[in-house]
Amino acid sequence: MVGPWDFGLALLVDSTAYPPNLQAIHRVIPGLPLAEAVAKARAAWRVHDFDDLAQGLAALQEAAEPTFLLAGESGTHLLTSPDPVQLARAMPPDHSDRWNSLNTSVLTEFVLPKVWGMRDDEQAVRIVHHDTDAAVRLAIRTGGTAVLLKPLAVDDVLAVAAGGERVPRKSTSFGPKPRTGLVLRTFAID
Fold it and tell me: Would 24 disulfide with which of 40, 86, 89, 151, CB 3.0-4.6 Å?
């Protein structure tokens, strides 16, 4: 019997014994000053202001999705409770409710294009894996805004995939990852 494993290398891990560690992938919007990003967001989101990043991150973890923490040179602001009419109008009707509720979907389909008038592509949006401090430093260095997200839930990713959909680009960062150069191959001859 021939299977897909006969045509490429794969690392299979028992996810019940070793559940995946899913971490957030943050965005940085160079050239979009934090004050401008917050001012535009106020038309569609409830905005909560915080004195420092630690307070904002704590509030982000407690807030119901969808929620985003904007940070940069002039402070930290939590976006919560989006306008349901604007949000519903922005989300694609050909996707499932589960897909449309993902924070990365809301960011890609609503916040970036509708609230801030930009595309989610490599030229407009920089990616920072896991490190909130690095994202904020990059935002400050580029005169922009860091968009800090919570990681997606593994159950949401699996449910979206089971429905035949893909999560938006740069939504998942699974770990642990195999070490670079690790190759396993049997030498048994069938």
Answer: 151
